[in-house]
Amino acid sequence: MRIISNIILRKIQERNSKEQKIKKRIFFINKLRLRSFAQCNVQPKNKSWHKFSFPDNIYCLYITTSSDNKYMFALTTCGIFKSENLGFTWNVCLKNNGVTWYVICSDITGQYIIASAKINVIGDAFYRKSVVFHSENYGQTWELSSYYSQINDNDYLISMKCSDRQSFVLLSMNGYIYESTDYGKNWVTLSIINSWCSSIACSYTNKLLIVASKYSKGCIYVSKDYGINWIKQLDISCNLITASNCCKYLACTSNSNLNGGIYVSNDYGTTWIRTLSLSCNWTSITMDYTGKSVYASSSDDGIYFSDNYGVSWVKLETVFDNWNCFTVNEDGSRLVASTLNYSKKISDIYVYA
């Protein structure tokens, strides 16, 4: 009996050893694939920074754009501004009126836009209500989402993405994910993650949702069935995430003192590699439609750029080190960025092209 037990035990150990070798081989292959893209990153040629007109004493919180940059929308402390000439001039399209804004998002055409906020509600008792504003005519007119939407009044709606032409997903800080399939008019609860969350990426076509969590013991959550089941990946605190069109290529930032930097994935969020080790206050990260061109900004160390799917990085030559948010057009050739001035609470808009 002892001999038979030893034989069985040896076979189990051999099988486990083979499984471990296969896992290591798969990880190595993925790592090799990423490195095969790598080249020595240099400053982009024939590009420079251009400062454009932006209203005085305005603090820009977030920028979104159509795929061709024709329609740009800037969410500010004073309302929503729009540019129809590649960022040269900006005009208000929705005034503030006591609203506290969080984030804005448009579809690829710029026709459909949604923006999250908190508004004052005065009834039997004064309270702050979470709402979504939506526009279906390039920001000309705005309406509040339906009263019957399932958004919780106390949610902080901090991240949103357009998953296809008429569908948007919206992430709250306490892990609720909402979906609208009618351009932002109505919202239903799509999924709930039992964690504090910070950023979301999605692909409706591939039924993918990827959520970054930066609070407590943060990680990346990946769902391949559009929110039914979730898998924890990359067990570190992550504050921002961006994705290519199909979510095959992903990049996220971490402000962690120990593991800070930028992490990338080329397999729909299954495995991750840190390609830039840098602890700073990351404020924005975005990539083009294919995932090849990636930009990441910080409030204290400038803007970093990668032209090889985030494998290697170069720090862009900029006029400032303090940047708050930016957006990029479909092919990654044009970057629109907002500077950050904490003390004066004002912003300038620059275009890198």
Describe this structure in words.
The protein is mainly β. The protein has a single domain (38-352), classed as Methylamine Dehydrogenase, Chain H. It contains one helix and 28 strands. The strands form seven sheets. The chain has a four-stranded antiparallel beta sheet, with no helix packed on it. Strands 2-3-4-5 form a four-stranded antiparallel beta sheet, with no helix packed on it. A four-stranded antiparallel beta sheet has the order 6-7-8-9, with no helix packed on it. Residues 21-40 have low confidence and may be disordered.
Q: What topology emerges from the helices and strands here?
A:
Elements: H1 2-37, E1 49-52, E2 60-65, E3 72-76, E4 79-83, E5 91-95, E6 100-106, E7 113-122, E8 126-135, E9 143-144, E10 157-162, E11 168-172, E12 176-180, E13 188-192, E14 199-203, E15 208-213, E16 219-223, E17 231-233, E18 240-243, E19 250-254, E20 261-265, E21 273-277, E22 282-287, E23 294-298, E24 303-306, E25 314-315, E26 323-328, E27 335-339, E28 349-352
Antiparallel strand pairs: 1-28, 2-3, 3-4, 4-5, 6-7, 7-8, 8-9, 10-11, 11-12, 12-13, 14-15, 15-16, 16-17, 18-19, 19-20, 20-21, 22-23, 23-24, 24-25, 26-27, 27-28
- Give a quick account of the main beta sheet: strands, pairing sense, barrel closure: 4 strands, antiparallel
Number of domains: 1
Strand content: 35-45%
Which architecture name does CATH use?
7 Propeller
* Series of secondary-structure elements, N-terminal to C-terminal: HEEEEEEEEEEEEEEEEEEEEEEEEEEEE
Highlighted features:
globular, mainly beta, 4-stranded antiparallel sheet, 353 residues, 28 strands, Methylamine Dehydrogenase, Chain H
